[in-house]
Amino acid sequence: MTSQNRQKYTDFIKTEYSRLLNFVRARVNDSAAADSEDILNDALAGIFERADISAPVENVAAYIYRAIRNRIIDSFRKGSGEPDRMELTHVQDDTRYSPEYLFQSEEIHRGISDALSNLPEELSSVFIMNEVDCMTFREIAERTGLPPGTLMARKAKAVKILRNRISKFINVEE
Questions:
Q1: Contact (CB, 8 A) for 111 and 168
Q2: How many whole angstroms separate alpha carbon 130 and alpha carbon 108?
Q3: N or C: which end of the chain has fewer CB within 10 A?
């Protein structure tokens, strides 16, 4: 495996570790957080162990989520007794992290990022502060010195522009 692919794995894991851990916790009906972390770390260690013999991976997210899902199934099989059929079926049938879903979600993410970066600064800054940074309009007003009504109007305009630009990625109903 090239160092570029190894770097892709590392970057993805650094930015998505908490989501990966939540992915495991949602599928393992176990109150011990350490068990979920063990499963995740075993899966990630396995990915890096096989890194030198595996072919280049196009969709890193799908590859990592699949490896984690497989490790969860392995842990059910190795655990005490047979896993509850419902639990194992839940893990196997989960399509939220299928390669197709992840490709589509990455495409949507890129579309939203592009749409946000093409907004005028006065609109994008208000939208990001309110939606991403979870700031209230009052907090934004204190920071910018603009009236809350102006900020609300700017956010509404940003939302309208974003809806138009990303409508090809998602079904947006007005």
A1: yes
A2: 20
A3: C
Which residues, including other chains, have CB under 8 Å from residue 20's CB and lie 6 or more apart? Answer: 13, 40, 44, 64, 65, 68
- As a whole number of angstroms, the distance between CA 164 and CA 160 comes to 6
Both structure tokens of 58: 């196009």
Among 103, 4, 27, 108, CA closest to 63: 103
Q: Is the dihedral of CA 34, 101, 61, 79 positive or negative?
A: positive
**Cβ–Cβ under 8 Å, residues 116 and 128:** yes
Question: From CA 139, how far away is CA 10, in angstroms rounded?
Answer: 36
Q: pLDDT per position in the chain (174 positions), as tens?
A: 456 667 777 888 888 888 888 888 887 765 555 678 888 888 888 877 765 555 667 777 888 888 888 888 877 777 644 444 445 445 445 555 556 666 666 777 777 788 888 999 999 999 888 888 888 999 999 999 999 999 999 999 998 988 888 776 655 444
CA quadruple 99, 101, 107, 112: dihedral, nearest 10: -150
Distance CA 25, CA 32 (A): 9
Q: Is the pTM of this model over 0.85?
A: no
